[in-house]
Amino acid sequence: MTSPDQPQQQPRQDVPPRQDEGTMMLNAVGARSGQQPGAQPQAQAQPQAQPQPQQYQQPAAVPQQQHAPHAAAPPQSQLPGSGYVSPIPVRRAHLGHALASEWTKIKSVRSTVWTLGVMIVLVVGIGALTGIGISASGTNLRGESPLGFGMFGMLLGLMCVITLGVLCVSSEYGTGMIRTTLTACPSRARVLAAKAIVFFLLSFVVTAVTTAVVALLLTGVLGGQGGATPSGSEWFKATVGVSLYVAVIGLLALGVGALLRHSAGAITIMIGLVLLPLVLALFMMSESLSDLREWLFEYSIPSQLGVMYSNAVADSGPSGWEPLWIMTGLTAVVLGGAFLALHQRDV
Amino acid sequence: MIEAVGLTKRYGAKTAVHNLSFQVRPGTVTGFLGPNGSGKSTTMRMILGLDTPTAGHVTIGGHPFRKLPNAPRQVGALLDAKAVHGGRSARQHLLSLAQLSGIPARRVDEVLGLVGLQDVARKRSKGFSLGMGQRLGIASAMLSDPQVLLFDEPVNGLDPEGILWVRNLMKQLASEGRTVFVSSHLMSEMALTAEHLIVIGRGQLLADMNVKDFIAANSAGFARVRTPDTEPGLAEKLTAALSAAGGQVAPEPDGALRVTGLALPRISDLAHEADVRLWELSPHQASLEEAYMQLTQGAVDYRSAVPPQVPHGAVPPQAIAQPPGMEPQGYAGGPPAGVPGPYAGQPGPFPGAQPQGAPVPGPYGAPPQPQPHPQAQPQAPAGPPPAAPADPTQQHSEDAR
After folding, report:
1. Residue B212 to residue A37, Cβ atoms within 8 A
2. Low-confidence winner among A42-46, A119-123, A246-250, B35-39 (lowest mean pLDDT)
3. Which of A113, B158, B210, B254 has its CA at a distance of 20 to 30 angstroms from the CA of residue B273?
4. Is B213 found in the same domain as B319?
């Protein structure tokens, strides 16, 4: 449109087919306007509305005409040649870019600060109160590890991690941001992978630090009350193990959020998943259901979290590190479904 | 270059887009028009690979968007000004997008300056007005400095200064050889911005042509003839004479006659022969708005019911028949359509139609800054998009003939 700008286009000889492209198109337009019944004489119309043909024809006519045979330019030559070339160097985007982007995103919203902040307060606060309470009452721990008392706080803190996991994905849907994101990165798997990795690492690190603080508090306060002195592996499991378990549940929440694309729905489902088996089991009085009841008790997330905190080997149900493997398997399935759904669904 | 072939999208029983084929070429601003719910946004989403077409395909530079190498560097889009996380600051929002597409972070500050949001860059976008949101959306579309740009309703919520800025920006982007595809339901805006039009209604292609062809093809010009009010018989006499000569005569609400099919001199001659004095004999050309109404009349999904009032003496019957859903003619505060057309011969909708491209100090700074890249082609001083407000006004009044 702007004739003053056209000459500046011309020095870009590096992209020959483009100018031909423009000429082609504008000729077509020009030809069409010729058919118009009450049109102005072509000669007069051109300088007004179609300055480009003249502008473009000059460069096109000189070298390109012969090797860019007018009509069907092959599709791949259209793109690099179809007009503007940005001076910003093109870097092929990869997962690393997506990770940086997701890190910027997760740290720049308040929901992250709120959920993780509340989590820290709950876990540390309840852990400290439990420790102080038991210490003040002078109860004998009878060989029990003091680390296990961190579990109550962690169970509540888990809800915060779940919320953050869901929000990581569903807030993009809630705000419409997802369309902007997927326009900037058409590889949907890359976006979800980056979200999962960034969220997992962040929640794991924060939880690990928090559980370590609580573990130190508890062992410090309850040191002389007849409890067992935790071994290195017990320490490891009650901090790193528990944190992995919590972060994996958060990842599961992220997968559910990606499948449901709705914050409240996904958070409700996740809280139901955590609490419902236990609540159901409490109300299963009937004798015929006792097997199911037992199973629900043992495999409910609070019980499994308890297993992660203690070293007690039960004769039935999960023990040792099993809760982590169970949850990892479940999360892998749900995340796989989320990848598939994201790939196929309309945004 | 965007190319759609047989593009169809069905949501259950509802067909949002049906067998749409078109091309959007580089170097011009292509307007994408249609009434509400006609499938514009669905088409845009399919172009960007967000929605998968039920049938047909759409490519950008020969590739579907999701298979496009370095897609974010080729294509930028503003789909919805509210498609941001409101809790994030404008700068962080753009930074995350820049990182995602592998664009240096300094580009963020450049586009913030370009759209004039640098002063509120660190504020959360939740508090932004719709106009500021649009600017942020335009910034994210411009972030990767792409050669294909899609804008869905970019002027929604902008003030007149912002509208002028967007219009000039579109033209400037197209003049740099980029493909610019702008959707709107504001005919008047497209008349000033676009050179080429793709019009859809109910998901189907209604027109794909040059703006002036579009007007010529979809609405005929007419002559307004007024006989003296004091002598009631004259109008009938003239009507008879003109009809006999092959013209079509329709009464206007204010008593004037709307004559088609006869040239002005011929009308004058006939009146003279019939011994009828004329108080008015004026040429009228249909505006783009009228042409558009004419075309989309059968294709409006959401038509509001309005009592058949006669809003203004000069409004042609056509304009009364307008689906009022379409009525908001944006900023064009000019007289109602039908008088020489909202943009024809009027002094332009903006007070003192600015000297082209001169930076207009706006509420958020001075948006129309030259391209910030040093290696970018030297901008024409103050980057005058040659068809700034004053020009198109005239241009279109001529175009329509």
Report:
1. no
2. A42-46
3. B254
4. yes
Is some CB atom of chain B closer than 8 A to the CB atom of A46? no
Interchain contact, B80 vs A179, CB within 8 Å: yes
What does the pLDDT look like over B73-100, one tens digit per residue?
A: 999 999 988 889 999 999 999 999 999 9
A235: tokens are 């320490």
Strands B179-184 and B29-33: parallel
Does residue B319 carry a pLDDT above 70?
no
**Contact check, Cβ <8 Å, B70/A92:** yes
Element (H, E) at A344: helix A322-344
Whole-prediction pTM? 0.72
For residues A34 and B289, the model is more confident at B289
* Interchain contact, A36 vs B195, CB within 8 Å: no
Rounded to 5°, the CA angle B156-B41-B26 comes to 85
A45 in the same domain as A121: no
Kindly state the DSSP code that residue B388 receives in the 8-state scheme: -
Question: B382 vs chain A: nearest CA distance in angstroms?
Answer: 11
Indicate whether A211 and A287 sit together in one domain.
yes
Least confident of A10-24, B41-55, B197-211: A10-24
Q: What's the pLDDT score for residue A172?
A: 94
Give B169's contacts in chain A (Cβ within 8 Å).
none
Nearest to A176 among B52, B82, B147 (CB): B82
The span from the CA of B376 to the CA of B315, in Å, is 48
CA distance A246 to A252: 10
**Which residue do the tokens 């337009």 mark?**
A29
State the residue range of the domain holding A326: 96-344
Distance of alpha carbon B153 from alpha carbon B333, whole angstroms? 19
Find the closest chain A residue to B25 by CA distance.
Answer: A25
Contact B387 A1 (CB under 8 A): yes
> What are A269's two structure tokens?
């489902």
Among A49, A81, A113, residue at a domain's last position: A81
